[in-house]
Amino acid sequence: MTDVARKRKNGRKAVSISRVMTLTFLGIILVGAALLNLPAASRDGRSAGAMVSLFTATSATCVTGLTLADTWSQWSGFGQTVILLMIQVGGLGFMSAASLAYFSMRRKVSIQQQMVMAEAIGVQNMGDVVIHQKRLLIRAFSVEGVGAALLTVRFLAEYPFAQAVKLGIFHSVSGFCNAGFDILGFRSPGSSLMTYQEDPAVCLILGALVILGGLGFLVWDEVLRERRPSKWSVYTKLVMITSGILLAVGMAATCALEWNNPATLGPMPVGKKLLAGFFQSVTLRTAGFAAVDQGALTPAGKGLSLFLMLIGGSSGSTAGGLKTVTFIVLVMFLWNRMRGRRTVSVFHRTISDDHVMNAIEMFILMITLAFFSAVVVSGTSPVDFTDALYETVSAIGTVGLSAAGTARMSPVAKVLIMMLMYFGRVGVLTISVGFLKKKPAGEKYRYANTDLLIG
After folding, report:
1. Which of 15-29, 371-385, 415-429 holds the top average pLDDT?
2. CA gap 201, 393 in Å, rounded
3. Are 53 and 36 in contact (CB under 8 A)?
4. Which of 173, 189, 440, 452 has its Cα between 20 and 30 A from that of 146?
5. What is the DSSP string of 159-212?
6. Which residues, 6+ apart, have CB-to-CB distance to 34 below 8 Å?
7. CA–CA separation, 291 and 192 (whole Å)
8. Could you tell me which residues come within 8 angstroms of residue 57 by beta carbon, excluding any fewer than 6 positions away?
9. What is the pLDDT confidence band of residue 110, given thresholds at 50, 70 and 90?
């Protein structure tokens, strides 16, 4: 096979895989929206309407958490079950759901299906993708099961057994999948976790689930296989170090900026302030549970939140965002350039120029989309630009926190936010499989260099 024919074949394969990802997620959203639009899905027995149903289905499948109606108040048990299933499929990835079906039927997984699953969970060696996928599912369900059991025990102190089990399962799956949906509206509609903001058990259990879900399955696998950090891969080391720093810095900065804010941490005792600061730092990493009023944050607090929401979790995880390693590669690139170095190296390894350029491209793309979308949202809805930017960054980062209230947005803004949620979950995958993974086309000619004044 000639080089030209091989490039064409690889290009078609990349496009095909991207199309599979895009259409499968879209199909899940449309089926979920159709089910949620049924009268039986609503608590009052009347259809929720196309916009609310489609928005909720998009948010659940893209594990975001932005909603137009309180999940408990709007949806019946059937509707909540549909939402939970979409969260599970969207969180573990439709590749995990597909592979689970193949495993149960004991069918052989094709090379192309392995490529799709490999890209979803970040596996670079396709030969081991099925083994990784089985391990992924077993561990994911095990973590969710433990989380559900712990939350059930906590909720048994307040609610009957059946309700405690329901609350435990729903919030464990929502937490691990970084979805941010809750069914606590019977306490105070739309308040998310604010009625539990001073409860160590609920906040710490959910926080642990969010962190585990956001680390990524490959990181789990390596940490469990190799207990000595010195033996971890460069990627795992970067994920663990960056995640730890972001959590600590986020907690410290949140406490510092909101310590005396009477609408957030101000009235709490010291211990509860630290707990709320920790949970805010965790939830901003694409979880979306609100333990404090996001709209009442100080301007500096909102700025910090925007920064953490944009970064998100790690690749191959249930989290969204720019991703931790992408962020740290950008930081190292800037640091090395300021020191006059042209290469980026870490742990005695050099990061390729292609990886650096991919990180820059993704950062510019996400920032541009979030900024100009905020202009549209602010221009069409009764919210100021800061809150509109908070909404768009939350959507594209699949976080799910809102400072202004998503239901207040105009129809145009709601459609745009749905598109951002979809891109935040699906677009990053399709781009990485598509143009970021392609080999650059050979240039037939180049123009003469020119000098410019930069800066």
Report:
1. 371-385
2. 29
3. yes
4. 189
5. S-HHHHHHHHHHHHHHHHTT------TTTSTT-TTGGGTT-HHHHHHHHHHHHH
6. 53
7. 7
8. 29, 30, 32, 33, 36, 86
9. low
Dump pLDDT digits (tens) for 141-178. 999 999 999 999 999 999 999 999 999 999 999 999 99
Would you call 428 exposed, middle or buried from its count of C-beta atoms within 10 A (0-12, 13-18, 19+)? Answer: buried
Q: Which residues contact 450 (CB under 8 A, 6 or more apart)?
A: none
Predicted confidence (pLDDT) per residue in 295-317, tens digit: 999 999 999 999 999 999 887 78
Identify the residue whose tokens are 């998009």. 58
Q: Is the pLDDT of residue 18 over 90?
A: no
Query: What does 358-412 look like in DSSP terms, one character per residue?
Result: HHHHHHHHHHHHHHHHHHHHHHHSSS-HHHHHHHHHHHHTT----SS-GGGS-HH
Where is 98: in which H helix or E strand? helix 94-105
Q: What is the mean pLDDT of the chain?
A: 85
CA distances from 106 to 41, 117, 130 (A): 34, 17, 12
Q: Residue 181 is which amino acid?
A: F
Calculate Rg over the CA atoms of the chain. Answer: 22
Q: What one-character-per-residue DSSP string does 263-309 give?
A: TTTTTS-HHHHHHHHHHHHHHTTTT---SS-GGGS-HHHHHHHHHHH
What span, in angstroms and rounded, lies between the C-alpha atoms of 302 and 401? 11
Closest CA to 65 of 166, 175, 142: 175
For residues 280 and 277, what is the distance between their CA atoms, to the nearest angstrom? Answer: 5
CA 251 – CA 301 distance, rounded (Å): 11
* Span 35-52, pLDDT tens digits: 999 999 999 999 999 999
The rounded distance, in Å, linking the Cα atoms of 335 and 254 is: 25
Question: Phi/psi class of residue 93: alpha, beta or left (left: φ > 0; alpha: ψ in -120 to 50)?
Answer: left
Q: What is the DSSP letter of 339?
A: T
d(CA 171, CA 151): 8
Q: 172: which 2 tokens?
A: 């464990």
3-state secondary structure of 2: coil
Q: What is the pLDDT of residue 317?
A: 80
| Two tokens, residue 191 | 């308040």
Q: Is the dihedral of CA 376, 382, 385, 386 positive or negative?
A: negative
Count the neighbouring beta carbons within 10 Å of the beta carbon of residue 109: 16
* Count of C-beta atoms within a 10 Å radius of residue 49: 14
Q: Is the pLDDT of residue 103 over 60?
A: no
Inter-residue contact 209 to 176 (CB < 8 Å):
yes
